[in-house]
Amino acid sequence: MVALEHRKKYYAETLPASEGDLVVEGPVLPDRLKYYSFHEGLVAFRPPEEQQEALIGIAGLAEGRIIIARTANEIVGYVTYLHPDPLEHWSKGNMEDLLELGAIEVAAPYRKYGVAKALLGVSFRDPYMENYIVISTEYYWHWDLKGTGLSVWEYRRVMEKVMSSAGLEWVATDDPEITAHPANCLMARFGKHVPQSSVEKFDRLRFRFRILY
Ligand SMILES: CC(C)(COP(=O)(O)OP(=O)(O)OC[C@H]1O[C@@H](n2cnc3c(N)ncnc32)[C@H](O)[C@@H]1OP(=O)(O)O)[C@@H](O)C(=O)NCCC(=O)NCCS
């Protein structure tokens, strides 16, 4: 098994938005996440107060990373990275070097200004990210189709643009949750320092029914 120290290096950049400049920064410590208010429109996954608590929890994990976009005092977007949930298939390999981009969200008034792409850009400035395979499971039932008015395929295109801006690319899988709908997909980025043994272990996770073919 690969042993990692999960070292984290902080980066920040400024992004002009029509509502004023945003700071995109991270990984941030739990205390910083407690300090800022949390935009009331960040409701894609759970009510804002609960999501802020969840982010604080992730930021405190050894491998957990939270990158935020914020105004002077309010968080308006975030992206999360952590090991796959123990209840998920992707955790079965017990891979220290597998991180899941679990959630990315930008409050509606700040969308389409490149905030999501900036969140990923700042995330991958940390060279330590090259030690990980980073995955994102795209399920259309998580997408804000109603709020954006996009079709499933238009939304899928947006997610591909966001993810590919940081080098996450579509990868094949026979995972039944992913194959349940053709717009769902698995995206992955293989860091430069990921050993071949981890790539192979991840391949076995991606194709669990291979024996049937
Ligand atoms: C998906 C989401 C994070 C995108 O955030 P964003 O900050 O608006 O994205 P960006 O501004 O960085 O846009 C990335 C690309 O998608 C395009 N895009 C974003 N929203 C779009 C829309 N509604 N219609 C058309 N194109 C859109 C942008 O123009 C940009 O394209 P480009 O690379 O050609 O310039 C945001 O819509 C959101 O929070 N949705 C709700 C939560 C969600 O669905 N999360 C994903 C599941 S985890």
UniProtKB/TrEMBL annotation:
<dbReference type="InterPro" id="IPR016181">
    <property type="entry name" value="Acyl_CoA_acyltransferase"/>
</dbReference>
<feature type="domain" description="N-acetyltransferase">
    <location>
        <begin position="51"/>
        <end position="120"/>
    </location>
</feature>
<dbReference type="GO" id="GO:0045150">
    <property type="term" value="P:acetoin catabolic process"/>
</dbReference>
<dbReference type="InterPro" id="IPR000182">
    <property type="entry name" value="GNAT_dom"/>
</dbReference>
<dbReference type="InterPro" id="IPR024699">
    <property type="entry name" value="AcuA"/>
</dbReference>
<dbReference type="GO" id="GO:0016747">
    <property type="term" value="F:acyltransferase activity, transferring groups other than amino-acyl groups"/>
</dbReference>
<protein>
    <submittedName>
        <fullName>Acetoin utilization protein AcuA</fullName>
    </submittedName>
</protein>
<dbReference type="Pfam" id="PF00583">
    <property type="entry name" value="Acetyltransf_1"/>
</dbReference>
<dbReference type="GO" id="GO:0019152">
    <property type="term" value="F:acetoin dehydrogenase (NAD+) activity"/>
</dbReference>
